[in-house]
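User: Could you check the structure of this?
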Amino acid sequence: MPQKYIEKILRAKVYDVAIETPLDFARSLSERLQNSVYLKREDLQSVFSFKLRGAYNKMSLLDADAKHHGVIAASAGNHAQGVALAANRLGIQALIVMPTTTPEIKIKSVRSMGAEIVLFGDSYSEAYAHAQQLAEETRRVFVHPYDDPDVIAGQGTVAMEILRQHTAALDAIFVPVGGGGLLAGIAVYAKFVRPDIKIIGVEPDDADCLNRALQAGERIVMEQVGLFADGVAVKQVGAEPFRLAKKYVDEVITVSTDEICAAIKDIFDDTRSIAEPAGALAIAGLKKYVERGQISGQTLVAIDSGANINFDRLRYVAERAQVGEHREILLAVSIPEVPGSFLAFCKLLGGRSITEFNYRYFDPAMAQVFVGISSSGLETDRATIIGHLQAHGFPVTDMTTNDLAKEHIRYMVGGHAPCELNEIIYSIEFPERPGALLKFLLELGGRWNISLFHYRNHGAAFGKVLMGLQMPQTEQRAFEQCLHGLGFVYQEATDNPAYRLFSGGMR
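Assistant: Sure, the predicted structure tokens are below.
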């Protein structure tokens, strides 16, 4: 019954550690979207995330015996800091299991609050399994990040504050979704007090476990999830959050990495603060909702859920934000290899700025250029530009949504291989920890020749590698089994047009 959750939320003991965060009016974003947009600033909590609410509420309700044995949690970031701070305030011993790929800054933050840390596994799922095992062995209470009624109730205090801070008309609240605890808490409270308000969950399109579960009618386990928005990179939505979401959530919207990056920039423009990818998720969903439905004149709230971002990820965010807000178009364009061709190409663009131009001589007849072009911000502008170029005899391949092009090829344009290499191309996610590359190469054992290798560190727990190997197709399965055995996420990219146009061997 929702009444039980309402009572839990009203009695939640979160304000011993949490503050009532402001509901800030986003002036620039509101003017641009022609709606009244507000940000619930959970990034201003002492641990820069809402997670301490649920963790503290759960732990404050433990009996004396449970507190004596201590608590344990598995987390790579925000939940770990919430549990550590709550334990410190309550005088409870805390053990946090973190993946070995966790950035040092987060490890230091958790340790500074007095928690003991165990580093285990390359992923959250491995750390989680180990924490469950340790909980049984040590009789510690496992503090779940989202699938627990007391944790959900703690997160639900966010909705209580929003409705107290904004008593006028309110059309929708947008909530980031990982395991679903924050969404469940907000939805059950808001729908009980103001059933007219839409509750909309927002997920990355490559980590949409709730969206898929709702479509299937049951919880599903995703084989792999995107790691850019690491705060919501969850393979399966929680059982209790899913039960509540089915009853009280109106819709789930999915957004791309580029749209998340654009939302980080939007938040910075209005607040001069930098959200983490998961923290900007709700704004990305809000913008998509407005654009999709041509919404205007409404009052919309987005949860800015956290600001725990590594500084060295900002380069990647800045690069992708322009595409995410439809202000940069990336194209592969064929231009005749004759004097004046580039001039003719530029004239066709009129007053538009060229943001990037990559070229190397390869074919005496036609040149392949990788070009970035500034755009008006309208989604339709891309089709207009492409159509205009094609109408004047310039063959175009759109690279704007091609991740391989954006993450690798644009930094590699320098010529094709001098001959046909019979190579197979893979895009691989490498764990960011010492020795990962050496371990991989030792596993290969010199069996196949590496003909192409490009790696960029985005400041995340995993880096992206583009790799070419010379091998017969009959050996592909053996190579992929090798990757699978190492736990690497991979995808064959041999037929990707970005590779074919700019890096493939001469035929």
